[in-house]
Amino acid sequence: MSKVILTGDRPTGKLHLGHYVGSLRRRVELQNEGDFDRMFVFMADVQALTDNADNPEKIRKSIINVALDWLSAGIDPSRCILFIQSAIPELAELTTYLMNLVSVSRVQRNPTVKTEIKMRGFEGQVPLGFFCYPVSQAADITLFKTTVVPAGEDQEPMLELTRELVRRFNQTYADVLVEPQIMLPERQVARRLPGTDGKEKMSKSLGNCIYLSDSKDELWQKVRSMYTDPNHLRVDDPGKTEGNAVFTYLDAFATDQDFADFLPEYPNLAELKAHYERGGLGDMKCKKLLFEILDRILAPMRERRAELEKDIPAIMQILKDGTAVARETAAQTMSEVRKAMQIDYFG
Ligand code: TRP
């Protein structure tokens, strides 16, 4: 069986560090390892519209921002197929058929969707398209016969549903679709990065994000004002590292090499944490370290972005070419789907 990797991002704004540690960093590694038959990365604009129906300008503008984020983070269009979801009508077609194979109550049980409904204040008036997006996501994944989806932990319920739908489809009609696996980030803490305010999740609507495109100055301002331990008032006080956003970020990003380069008086994060917990280590020192570590990641992205921004039409062309390639696969799978469902009336 061939190995097909696929992931998507909702183009609702610039990508932030949560996206980076949750999925983008892994994607770039997977791409560079090259151990796959095909790799797809796409703009989930149809999904973005399910809760932004009245704001198409935002989605349109974000397509370019997200493409710049991908390319500056190292996604390489000569190795990955980059495409736009709405330009693949086969996705809508497959979604329609998959919807017949799942109950309303099954979709209602999805914890990620439940949280999102609360966060958006949709209770009692959830747009039907939004409610159904997990099924549409199952179509995104299965249309390309995806075997591996690198994603954060919040995507697990979608993958579970997708696997159920694949089994239902194949049992009911014929063995056409393929069951995918999720590939979670290796570092446990990277599975869900909190915001700079220490709140559960980095999210644009909460205003607690560090964007991949932030300037050096913006980065420092955000790190400087990050949430730490509110009871760590004086340097000599013992501090908590648990629930302390600066340390959560260090958990997600710091390597021993970073310590050697930026703070050689500590061999590793464990020693830094121990000192903080004992007392005698100030927040500022930890924040400066975090800033250096993050800037080492973001500075090359900033540079590449500045180059890429000079030729936006070239970026649109990359998306257009990738979409044409993706559509060929989409058409192939859909002809198998129609045949399996006995709706291939005209041959
Ligand atoms: N739901 C994903 C997110 O919110 C985006 C997405 C849509 C996706 N379709 C996908 C991710 C298919 C992986 C595979 O980020």
Characteristic terms for this protein:
single chain, 347 residues, mainly alpha, three-stranded parallel β-sheet, 15 helices, binds tryptophan
* Helix content class: 40-55%
Distinct small molecules bound, one entry per kind: tryptophan
Strand content: 5-15%
* Oligomeric state of this protein: single chain
**Overall radius of gyration:** 22 Å
Q: What best-fitting shape do the alpha-carbon axes yield?
A: globular
Q: End-to-end span in angstroms?
A: 27 Å
- Walk across the major sheet and give the strand order: 1-2-3
What is the string of SSEs from the N terminus onward?
Answer: EHEHHEHHHHHEHEHHHHHH
Q: Helix/strand-derived class? A: mainly alpha
- Largest sheet entry: 3 strands, parallel
Global mean pLDDT: 95
Number of strands: 5
DSSP helical segment count: 15
Uncertain spans: none
Overview of the molecule:
- This protein is mostly helical.
- Helix content is 54%, strand content 6%.
- The protein has 15 helices and 5 strands.
- Strand 1, helix 1 and strand 2 form a beta-alpha-beta unit.
- It is globular.
- The model has no long low-confidence stretch (mean pLDDT 95).
Summarize the structure.
With 347 residues, the protein is mainly alpha-helical. The protein is 54% helix and 6% strand. Helix 8 crosses helix 9.
